[in-house]
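Bug #77: duplicate submission created two jobs. Keeping one. Sequence:
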Amino acid sequence: MIPMKGRLQPYLLASLLLVLVLIVTACAAPAGPAASDSGAAMADDGEEMAGRPLPDDAAEEQVIRYVTRNFSRMNPASEGGFGRPFVSHIWMTLFLRDYEHHPQPWLATGYDVSDDGLTYTIHIHPDAIWSDGSAVTAQDVKVYWEYAVSPECIGCRMFNYSAIKLIEGIQPVVDGEADEISGLVAVDDKTLEITLVAPKPIIIDTLANYNTAIVKLDDILEGGEMWAADGTARVNGPFKVKVWDPDTQEYEVEQNPMWWGDRKPYIERIIGQASADENVSFIMWQNDEVDIAHWLTNIREPLRADNPESFTLIPYATNFFYTLNTSLPPFDDINVRRALVHAVDWDLAIEAAWEGARSDRVMKTHLTPEIQCYKADNWPDFGYNPELAKEELAASKYGGPEDLPKIRITTNGQSPNYIRTAEIMMEMWKNNLGITNVEMRPGRIDAWGQEGEEVQVLRRSSGAVIPDSGEWMNGFYQRLGDPARQINIVDEDLGALVDEMALYSSADPEYCDFVQEVESRILGHYYLLPMIWDLYEYNTKPWIVGFDTNVDNNWTSLLDMYVAKR
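Kept job's structure:
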């Protein structure tokens, strides 16, 4: 069995050495629960786990109050927002990545891989149980994943990952034509065999991603849309949901008393507090009403000078941008899309909108400089060129600004940076192209009321949740034809190139050539208005001890974090 690897080096160096990170998976001390013969520290079937003595400097109350932009319904398969810090500690993934992206044992103790790289045998922890005392089995994993890639799982993301697409027999299940995936076999209760149609070493990285976390399928089928809201759903991790209800804005998780691992967490509860207005959440921080904060705007910049030790960089490459709804006029015409990009001086716009804080992070490609295969200037014809923009608008079917339909913009949040970027875009479109029939409304799309379906420009973000450049490009390609994201671009040749890219490993000499060609082709559709390559960070109060995170935005050290006395 292949053991798992430990922490080696800082994030930027790890990003440059991504090839080694993804193909090597060996290690000494696992981050997850160790196998136990005696089970002395663990919960026996049907018994609660004994307590864990607190450190001498720990506070009596072990509660974390966490503030961020918003929360969605708790569901690992569809999670893509701000529940990521702890969702994999409620419903566990087979592996859990550390700060340098190395997968560590979590629900699984390790794996074997065949000589041809096609068959992975996953060993589920022998002590793993659900919170009702029943064993976590390989069959649980198999049936839940079959559901998670099927049409029944609305909004689920598991099939978006290239390694998952290579599981033998998965496509008929995705298409709704079959119920079982032939490449998933429960060999016995604690052994899962995964067969691929082509080698893909990144499969283990994928099985550390929160979208692959294991849920008890019966709970979903019986609970409906709100299956996780009231805390009755079974879990297999050290925490459980107490209440998670976006309708009532109540978000709280607590210790799972039936946690089977070798050590109980110190933290007793985590209370989530949603604040769309980051000015409000910053006041909460200043008043010590929260312990951990996640901000996406310049609101955090004063802290950088006054309290730099509060920052923890999330090792996560990410982009902020506005997408263009190509199903709605005028963005059904690529000449209009090109003209609006070329009419904006993006360096100047970002300098002003972000007040100098992101001047060196202007988004000019999808891949960020920290990630493998980055190539500067890989966006065809990108750059400020007002004369070209005028020619492109004239060449569009609209012929000029007079006949353009109204352009509606939503910032998808109250960030002053997003709002100011939109205002600058609008001003430059007016000055350089004569376009004036444009309106921007801060907030989410519902700020437009009945006009919501007519909004063509929406603020979005994307990150490399699996630290692999080809995987990230695969994700961007998925956006092009995703009706939920209002981008309706069909490029069959690009799709074939993406499928071919998926067959390569990051260690292959041709890998970056494929990645860069895919990126160039995607950006050549001009389906977005760029903003920044962002740096995601958490801010923690000094009394939060042992905090660490990973590329998933997961609090990987949650088992050992604690609240110290103030």
